[in-house]
Hints:
Elements: E1 2-7, E2 10-14, E3 21-26, E4 34-35, E5 50-51, E6 68-69
Parallel strand pairs: 5-6
Antiparallel strand pairs: 1-2, 2-3, 3-4
Amino acid sequence: xxxxxxxxxxxxxxxxxxxxxxxxxxxxxxxxxxxxxxxxxxxxxxxxxxxxxxxxxxxxxxxxxxxxxxxxxxxxx
Length: 77
C-alpha cells in the first residue's frame, strides 16, 4: 500500500500495483478513515448512508431522497 499527503492535513492511500484509491484520512476528523467502497471484495456489505459534497454534484447525478444529504463534509456521517 502506498501513501501520500495530497494536501495539508490529508493522507490518502492507494494500491501500489494498480493505483486504486483505498483510504482518505484528514486531521479534521482524526478518529475517522474513509474507505473507498469499491475497493472492497464485497461492496454490497457497506451500502451508502448519506450523500456528501452535494454542492459539487454534477447535474446528471441522481440523489437518493432516503439518505441524509450534506452540501459539504458530513459532520455526523
